[in-house]
Structures are given as C-alpha cells and as structure tokens.
Amino acid sequence: MKQNITLSIDKEIIKKGKVLAAQKDTSISKMLGDQLKEIVEREDQFEAAKRGAMQILKEGFHLGGKIDWSREDLYER
Length: 77
Hints:
There is one protein chain. This protein has three helices and no strands. By secondary structure, it is an all-alpha fold. It has one domain (about 10-75). The longest helix has about 30 residues, at about 30-60.
C-alpha cells in the first residue's frame, strides 16, 4: 500500500531533480521512493548481520586444545 507524504526540499534541488527524473524516464517521487527503500533494506540487512555476529560471539569459538589443568594447579600456594 502506498501513502503520500509531504517533503520540504530546496527549489533548486527540485528543479535539478525534475531534469534528472526526465532523463531517466521516471518521476521524482519514484526516485525518492527507490532511494528510501534501498536505505531501509540496507539497514535491515545490517541489523540482521549484527544480530548473527552477536549470536556467534555469544556462543564463542572452539579453537581446539584441551584444558587439562585446574585453577588450583595454576595458583599453587
């Protein structure tokens, strides 16, 4: 579902945007919508990657080896 919004953009940017949109055979509205969609999708991907990385860090890494000593062995008094 689409919804209209109101933006406040400098007139010179709008003028140049109209020319650019015409060159690309599209509209300013479509260009802005596509850019916003790309930003939101990129942010969603980043958040998903961050959650995955945090889960991996939480689980930790097994780097091999075996602990065959106790705390007492290391800290004999």
